[in-house]
Inverse folding.
């Protein structure tokens, strides 16, 4: 029995040999751990601190509305305006009127007192309308007036009139390139006009014809309504 046990003890490695091997493996593993820690630290420093990149997503700042700059869009860019139509822009002057004609609802064919119409250009007397039984022309027609022919298209800024001293005339300034009541547009008006009046147009207008059109008459005497126009001038650019 003792011989068998002694043989088995001789085949086992000595305890000192086992302990030495264990120490070698432990030191090798510790060395590998140190190398791993050193390499990880170097990677962290070189990849994070030295390059300026954030260490982790948790430490990077979030964008806030105040830190985001708006980008330009098509709607924010200024749009170019289309050029306005050509119109003389010089100072307005009193223009020369080529001709003055009495004018009625049917044009120059039925104007009141046509022989007196040219007086309004020179201030040498008055053009008087026919007299009517009411201020509304006895309900026989829509109006009466004087047509000013400028000779060619001009820019009209305003019209000046010298009327009788009695109030009650309703007057319009109509402009156009055709001597027909329906083709001329109303550019200025004044109710209850009398004396010297100035009628600026709503906006400067290009026209050859300027119509002084009365739609209501002042009282001249009981039962008699009539308007008197002493002078008419046109201001604008030729």
């Amino acid at each position: 029995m003792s011989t068998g046990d002694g043989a088995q003890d001789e085949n086992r490695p000595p305890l000192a040999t086992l302990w030495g091997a264990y120490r070698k493996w432990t030191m090798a593993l510790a060395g590998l751990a140190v190398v791993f820690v050193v390499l990880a630290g170097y990677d962290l420093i070189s990849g994070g601190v030295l390059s300026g990149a954030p260490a982790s997503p948790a430490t990077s700042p979030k964008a806030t509305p105040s830190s985001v700059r708006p980008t330009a869009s098509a709607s924010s860019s200024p749009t170019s305006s289309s050029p306005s139509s050509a119109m003389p822009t010089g100072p307005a002057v009193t223009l020369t009127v080529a001709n003055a004609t009495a004018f009625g609802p049917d044009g120059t064919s039925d104007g009141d007192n046509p022989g007196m119409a040219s007086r309004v250009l020179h201030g040498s007397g008055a053009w008087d309308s026919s007299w009517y039984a009411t201020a509304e022309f006895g309900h026989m027609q829509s109006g009466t007036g004087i047509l000013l022919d400028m000779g060619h298209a001009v820019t009209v800024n305003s019209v000046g009139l010298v009327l009788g001293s009695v109030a009650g005339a309703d007057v319009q300034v109509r402009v156009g390139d055709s001597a027909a009541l329906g083709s001329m547009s109303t550019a200025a008006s004044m109710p209850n006009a009398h004396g010297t009046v100035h009628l600026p147009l709503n906006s400067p207008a290009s026209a050859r014809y300027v119509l002084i059109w009365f739609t209501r008459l002042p009282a001249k005497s009981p039962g008699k309504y009539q308007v008197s126009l002493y002078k008419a001038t046109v201001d604008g650019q030729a």
Remarks:
- Helices lie at 2-11, 15-49, 119-122.
- The beta strands are 93-94, 99-103, 127-128, 144-163, 169-176, 185-193, 196-216, 219-221, 224-225, 228-237.
- The two ends are 148 Å apart (CA to CA).
- Residues 15-49 form the longest helix (35 residues).
